[in-house]
Each structure stands twice: as C-alpha cells, then as structure tokens.
Amino acid sequence: MKLYAGIDLHSSNNFIGVINEKDERLFQKKMPNELNQVLAALNPFKKELESIVVESTYNWYWLVDGLMENGYKVNLANPNAIQQYEGRKHRDDKWDSFWLAHLKRLDILPEGYIYPKDERHVRDALRRRQLFVQHRTSHILSLQSAITRNHGYKMSVREIKRLNDSDASNLFNDPFLIMTARNNISVIRFLDNKIDEIESEVLSHTKLRPEFDKLLTVPGIGKILGLTIMLEVGDIRRFPTVGNYSSYCRAVKSIRLSDNKKKGEGNKKNGNKYLSWAYVEAANAAKRSYPEITSFYERKKAKRNNIVAIKALSNKLARASYYVMRDKVSYNAEKLFR
Asked: Which of 52, 125, 251, 258 could form a disulfide with 315 if both were Cys (CB 3.0 to 4.6 A apart)?
C-alpha cells in the first residue's frame, strides 16, 4: 500500500504525519530539527513511502537534501499557493502535516522548485549582494534628501557615489549634519567594496550556461543580472508559457475581475522577489540607453506614474527574456516594441 508523509517544518522543530491511500493516519510525531531523528522516524515506512512533502520554509535545505540523499522522494510544497480547508475551527502543526500528505495523495499539491544543490550557494551569494545594493541605495537616498532639504538642489546619485569622507565637511556647516553625511558616505563606500567582492567571487566561479548566453543581448541585463536570472530560473522548461514566467517574476497584476469590475486581489507575494528586483533593475538601466524603450517608458509614465511605467517595462523585459532563454535566440526589439 502506498504511503504519504507530510512534514510541517519550523525553525527548531518539525511535525511528521504519515497516511495511507485511505487517508488513515499511521504515524504522527513532533521532533527537533535533527536529521538522524527524522530518518529514524521515517525508516519503518521507507519501502512504502510514495513521497515526503516538506513545506517550503526558509530553512528547508538541510531536510530536503538529507532525505533525498537517503533515497526518499521529496516534494517541496509552495505554502503561498496551498488552499487551506476552511471548515475547521482549529489548526495546528499536526493538522498541517497531514494536510500536506493529503494534498499529495490527491495529486493536487502546489509544488515549489527544488533548486540543484551545487548552484544553490552561488545563488544565495547573489541574493546577499542584492540586499547590500538595497542598503546602499537607502543611504544614498538619505544623503541626497539631506542635501536637498538644506541646500535646495538635488545631487545626482553618480555624484554621491564619488564622495569621500572628507567631502562631508564641504557639504554642510552644522556638526551633526556633517557627522550624518560622513556616516552615510562611509557606509556607501563599505557596501561598494562588499558588492565588488561578491561580484568578483561569483564571476570567477560561475559562468553563464550556453542556454542563458543570449540573456546579455536583452537591454539592461549585464553579466551580474544575467547570472542572477540564470540562477533564480534554474530550468526555463518548468514554465510552460510566457505568462507563467512573467507571473513568477511578479511582473503582472494580482487582481480578480468579474464583469470588468475589481472583486479582490490575489497573493502579491506569490512568485520570486529576486527576479522581480532583477527586471526592475534592468528596466531602470534600459530606459536610459535605448530610444524605443525610453519612448515606451515615457508614454506609460505620462498616463500613470513612474512606478507603473517601470513595472510595465520590467514585464516587457521579462517576457522577452523568456523567449530568449527558451528558444536560445538573441533579443529582437522589433518583436517587443513593434
């Protein structure tokens, strides 16, 4: 008889539930996050276990890798897409673990992607780079705002990036403003170095695979963004259509309509936030250098605002990238902006 297991995973413990084809509960236990104990609990059911479902939390690597290395078939559940049963008043870890197994038994489990272990750590390094870039931007904007408030003019981002600690005393007269500016400049310089360090290490160890080489022909995408997209996508074949890919990149609206009227919104967090960021970065770079892209951006901006225009452009670039990766062809502006 086929058996199915669900594991509700938390930061320090997990709950295992095992069911059979008749949805009968055969085993349930809460235990600490120690692989040997998890394997010992599952071992009596190993021969009959059809699948083990693990919830895709932030700390799933050790458990999924350990189970797969010991011969178990593992499915990663996408918690954002799982439909919960609303008829129960009480839910807990035990219920969640059996619910995961139940969904797999019915073959209706929304699954996440188990990214290949060999490239996972490089991908995570680029994710840390993105975090540093965002922190650097916040300090740049903070200093830029202080200059505008006190002097009435706006210093460009490029000029701020060129500042040194000694320049703080030339920007302001007040000692507290000088101290704040010096701190901003110091942090910007520090993050510059860390970002360069990560980029250097990644570029020396990882190259674009042949199927992703053409990404560099897409406007706004350089080597680092190309590697970011490659490492976040993994296998482009897991997206059957361009709409699936665009949705995964969070490049489309999450909205429910009926009779052309808005009836609600879906889960805006469903998708990959790192790909969303990558295409927004590409859009910001592309709109400065390509006439047809600048024209598209300005039209959208005139109708709505800058944020909507950038998101619309990022969606265009995401859709173009999908065909570039899937068909292994170069970017064609005429197809995108005809």
From this structure: 251
